[in-house]
């Protein structure tokens, strides 16, 4: 009897040392499709350095202990763990099983199939690229093949970087696994669909109302969805399939962001800042701590490992604090009961989840899904709360609009009275302005008649120069451009009969320009009576002195810089000579298809500078058929065309050259048409004057 006890103790020690458990697959299937962790032994490797080869060869020894719960929870840990077991297939046919091991977010999950000849490795976990997982699934599971009447030996290795390792050890029949996976996929689709729907709806409400509580609520919903997405292993599968740092940190980051936004949402919805600055300071402090811990969790090593329990603890504490704040604030201000209910459900779900992690509650179906279900219920409750707030805001908006409408009606009535009074005043002022405008317009029109009487008539121009045209287009009713023509006989020793004509552009346009043009016209007429004036240059000198004397008298308070640019031509048709003098305005001569430019002096009429020089004459031999053009700057400076640019002198020269062979009256019509087409859609900027003469 004593020997039997010694043998029993020896066998117990051996089993504890090697930890080899056995699963028998027979026709009854009692051990399949349910958590079996409490039927297996587990050993911890704190260093994480033990290899499968060392274990198979017996180079190292591990101390195995039996797991107590159907779903073992190994607390927050950075160790590796080993489970050694065999599977015996007693059936007469081959069997396919699916082994479900640790949670999807476990870093290292490797299964080793050991035989006499080789060691086959099956890989899983989020520490490796998703493509390297043996079973392309978000869960940590392995497909096992067992031929009839065979036994296979396995070693299961698991490792974490600080998170809890949860181990159900479920051996699924393949058909049952596929059925459960399909149902789970359906539920997960509905779960995330609800989150997406809520996020879209309440984001729309935010854009409509611009209320921050809706924005923070949407961000909280999105963060909660991302947290569950990470816990389900989908972040590794779809967002960061390369595994490693990004995948492993996604859980902590999404958890931290979720806590942050639920605090911000609750603070805004409950209007904590309006209720109490102390409570608001606590909310702000919690949010700051969450941000700090979340940032520190990004640093690999001890800080990262410590962040797991801290974030879990802060999640629960923050949620409890929100519930307390809602109850306290609800005593003085109305808080929707579903807000409190939703937060309460979330707390209950979180507590069940945490108690399951510590194996206090050993109901895997409840503990593993409590957080997800409670989050979903909370989101639904809070969605109803936010819908109620939306309705409340709309009602308040409608009430405000109704009050505003009433106020506006009163304002409108008062405004109508004021408008009638003001309209009567405006009508009276309008009548006065119309009378004044009529007087001014009548005066300007009379000035137009005076200017027209002063300017040479078409009949006079044609009688002296039959082959000629004058294109005269004032910008306003009266013009600052003017033209002048006379038949003169010089008072020199050898008198000559001349036809003298001028093309002048006075400073300004409209009434001011017209005044200057009348003065200029008068001085040109006076120059005829001066026996010393016998050339165009002397006439311009006479005109310059007269303009300066008229506009800048000795007792004048201020200098007037008005004057004119002018081209003055004296034709001797008997000798076929032309004398030309110009103040800034040139003369164009077209002969044999070429355009010749005779430049003017670079000083205008009315110039009083110290460097003033007398104007100079240019004598030109004429030939029959020559065409002379003088002009103001109005045509070339006009804006227009497709790009709204100036016409410019280069284009003006080319156009004059192209029409120079045509009859003079036809040239005038073509010039007017060209000007109208160019300025179409634009205002006329200046007076336009072009004179053409054919010899």
TrEMBL record:
It holds the Pfam family 7TMR-DISM_7TM. One of its GO terms (molecular function) is phosphatase activity. The keyword Kinase does not apply. Residues 383-432 form a coiled coil. InterPro entries: 7TMR_DISM_rcpt_extracell_dom1, 7TMR_DISM_rcpt_extracell_dom2, Bact_Sigma-Reg, PPM-type-like_dom_sf, PPM-type_phosphatase-like_dom. Keywords: Coiled coil, Hydrolase, Membrane, Transmembrane, Transmembrane helix. Residues 39-173, 185-388 form the 7TM-DISM receptor extracellular domain. Residues 502-694 form the PPM-type phosphatase domain. The chain crosses the membrane at residues 186-207, 214-231, 251-270, 282-304, 310-330, 337-358. It comes from the Bacteria. This is PPM-type phosphatase domain-containing protein. It comes from Parvicella tangerina.
